[in-house]
């Protein structure tokens, strides 16, 4: 027999599992009851020896065959509650409570729990015959107390079979109706294993059985890599499965503290609510990140920060729930709790309930999870923390209201941050730290560093010092920050600093691995870009001199909002959606149109609705999403006023939009900022982008497409603004791991402060007097008048300066304030003078005059002469398999020198950038449009012409203009006269632009 056959793999697994490290004993299937799916002998032996008193009571109640009656009662409990709940909580019958398994105690102080744990009977059985009728066998089954928990089918590449054959075997040769396979009745998880890879499922459904990869990644779990496993020079590459996961203590820990039933509620196309449940077994990287975090905290105690860079598709919500629960029960070597409370900071409502429901399955203790949702106030948060509630869920915005009333002295906290982003470096985050900090210990540290004697150490009333001690890291606080796209500030705040000065995530599950494992789709695989070319001219004789930057923005706005530009792009969007997208995902695919502003969103929405109606696309309908009210030519629009169910005229509420977009009534969503992050809609297949995107914003926006669902095989992006190279640069840092090459030097603050001093806008005594008033009360509004008076001298000096100096000062002031707010999250500087200047500078920035920088409006001064849109790229944007390095914040000024140019020069520069070599055909088209816009017949229709009347007159006038132009370009116009189809196409191309131009006059 070949030494590499399937049996050799079985031998290796069994050899480890029955070793002292493995914790199992070898057994056979001789006592396995296929009809019940149990080894009844071992089950009854466990009950009788571990719960002798309970068994005697039960046997006295059922004197006639107590064994049979016990099995019946247990079976009833499992059918009603599910195997997982009965394993975890046991079951009751006739007032008698039976435990089906004992779990390892959190603390070693409880001898009874430790002894009970040792009474578990854990067996490994090879070639277990499981059929009531038949002789099929499973390669390997793991049992605890006679109950099968894990099944395995093993394959070996050296014999020509692999994990795919094992999956096939489960799907087509293993009947889910056999007792051992029944969902939520017996086995909890099924593994398909070969020497290279592992896959798992918690439910057999014949050919519909869905397997998840259970691999480490090519460089090991928590490291950068792709799908698969690292080479194991000491054995099989999949040895981690039996050595780290199926080992007795590990498996029972997973059942006790990880596995749970997740309920999913969906609405079908008829509006019916459908509830489904899924038994969750943690993926390998989830087990790994929680285990490594727990081990590190147990070794070091509180006080460290941890950055977890886990991609979309990583199952972050479950990872957070498991981590919160494990941290809540974590003890040090002296059996003391390491944390008083675990605080989960999130803005996701779905995480609130999911975390609460998940933890409740592990532990029924009342009040273990305290949810501070929108129905509760900051006072509830204060009470929960002061009362030492174990797990608290809240938004960060609730902390500033009560941060001074929370007592964190002599307490330790773990703060889990769901989606770490820039809010963790602002004032709310600082006040969270100030609320939870051990103030007594920090005041002692400050006094020691300042060399204060005992008489000088009464610092509790010094409010500047009270604020200073909230800065930096705290030995009583540990932060656990989860994000897929860490920014520079996030890396320096939460990342681990290595000896080479770089900051790295503690644990990584990369975008690359998530894509390769099939948990998300690669949104860059099908990417198309368009280039838009245009030439703009003045239509006024004057040539005013304008601020070059703001005027260029006005020209760009004129072009981007021009009806011809939008109508041409809308035509491309609708025809692409109708031809390609709507047939995707079994006809359920949806699209998002990303626009540059709220006004763009309104105009796009109106143009889409109009084009769809005029071209009779009955199966297409559009929604729009934006905040607030948009005024367009005197007409006010809101999201609600535009979104309605056409057949009923019912306006869709803002909160209802996601639900209606998911329905079959709508398939396109126009957005301006809203729904570009955090929106989870798996039916989104295509994105049309007409907005500049870069960095994290590009990744977050395009990643709305990456969710998987049944029938979704790919995605598509059509981009009118960004080129493929820019998108590649945006995604590259987040494809594998994001590394900060070095941290921001806190001393930059002193350089910025020196630059601000040089403006001579303020005097040092003014800053100090302001700070005295500021810190004299906790109510900033109460002293607003006095505070403003102390700022007045600086404001007067500011008003006397030239606009260029004003702009530069304001930019430098903003740069200092932003950098200081970030640095004090990372470092504790204990600099009272700098802190006083910061509170002064922050208020001064808010109150400085805005200046006369009104918008420059050029719409009535410009005309679009030439326009052309061309496809420039189609294909896949490839990312390199390498770590992404980002640079530290330098703290430079954001100010720009104000430059003025004549309008003609501004337009010339714009045309140089966005123009092209215009063909004769381009020029002819523009000539025709220009002539039509001078037609007395068309102009006589007024600003609101009847559409049918316009169409009739337009067709006639277009024919006349083409005939009149013959002698100016005989070659092209003779071609048009010979080819009626080409002529009609040209006339149709011009119609909408001419119509919009006339109605806008």
Automatic annotation (TrEMBL):
InterPro entries cross-referenced by the UniProt entry: Helicase_ATP-bd, HsdR_RecA-like_helicase_dom_2, P-loop_NTPase, Restrct_endonuc_type1_HsdR_N, SWI2_SNF2
Keyword Coiled coil in annotation: yes
Record-given protein name: Type I restriction endonuclease subunit R
Occurrences of domain Helicase ATP-binding (ranges): 297-504
Stored SUPFAM superfamilies: P-loop containing nucleoside triphosphate hydrolases
Tagged with keyword Coiled coil: yes
Coiled-coil stretches: 429-462
